[in-house]
Model the fold of this input.
Amino acid sequence: MTAQASTGAPVAFTNLMSMDGEAGRAISGAVSRVFATERFVGGREVAAFEEAWAAYCGTRYAVGTSSGTTALELTLRALGIGPGDEVIVPGNTFVATAEAVAFVGARPRFVDVDPETLLMDPDAAAAAIGRATRAIIAVHLYGQLADVEALQRLSALAGIALIEDAAQAHGATWRGRRAGAFGLAGCFSFYPSKNLGAAGDAGAVVTDDPDLAASIRRLTDHGRAQGHPHTHASIGTTGRIDALQAAVVHAKLPWLDEWNARRRRSADHYRKLLADTPAAPVSWRFDEAHVAHLFVVQVPHRDRVRMLLEREGIETGVHYPIPCHLTPAFSAHRNGRIPVVERSAGRVLSLPMHPRLEPHDVDRVCDILLRSVEEVGVR
Ligand SMILES: *Cc1c(COP(=O)(O)O)cnc(C)c1O
Done:
């Protein structure tokens, strides 16, 4: 194959479903409602969203936060985790997971991942537990639940907290329970490109623990004791969810399962076309446990393959090209090599994935991907 100009239609990496038909009308209605009441902070919209999100996740409480990162940070703070403590995190994750740990003054301890799923390896987590370990953060990366059963057992045995970073796994289930409901707390992001996205930054923590929910809520609201706006019971911050974002996310929630189902259909199609090829998909542990936030394959010469795809109008992403422990910000937190993470970082490639993807888009992406992999391989 020689390089040629694109002849097919471009394929976008994502589609935010922000004004999609009926959902779009629900969103507009929600926005108008918030403006009509001029209650932009707190109030009914926030309470209604929190109630709906807790019900969806199958937990007793949800507390809206200003972002997913804030959700993680304030969960750690509420648990009293800080200087002198260690928290185990997978080496393959978005930087926010480790950032939250370092931001509260604790040490992130990076562990390796399973080579098939690129999710935290429970044995590596077990081996990393020491006297200073206070928690494990399981990250359900790409939309797939980490091995929550093994990690629940491990954290119970060690007497430490299991926190879920479910920022990429809204609605993923395992044995009928949803992401966020397995740990002491589950942290979500509603960043616009997530499976359930706001019109800006937003997040939430879900938990069954009333004291933890109350502590996190206080921290998001300047440490205010509930019902006492001038009594600051603890040092907090401005970490609340905006009423506008709560209303937008709430308005989109009825479509989440359908959008996830559409993502999974495209993922199944990709998996069929790419199985046993040199662009092998990262494997799915259990079909039901995945909501296909991203569709990730591993290819040799990734950056060159990516350029060829771009030339054909196919947008891709890389999650993540530099593992957290190798970025300058975490140079003080390196704790040895984590070979699977380091090797896969040069090979992972995220293909177009969103609820509007059509079967012919997937066909075209796979066709060009396989040709590109072959082309860079023979050069
Ligand atoms: C998006 C994301 C976050 C952070 O969420 P923000 O809302 O952007 O702060 C944390 N962890 C993971 C795995 C994410 O993908």
Q: What stands out?
A: DSSP finds twelve helices and 14 strands in the chain. The first strand starts at residue 61 and ends at 65. Residues 67-69, 93-94, 96-97, 139, 165, 167-168, 189, 191, 201, 203 surround pyridoxal-5'-phosphate (CB under 6 Å). Residues 59 and 94 are 25 Å apart (CA to CA).
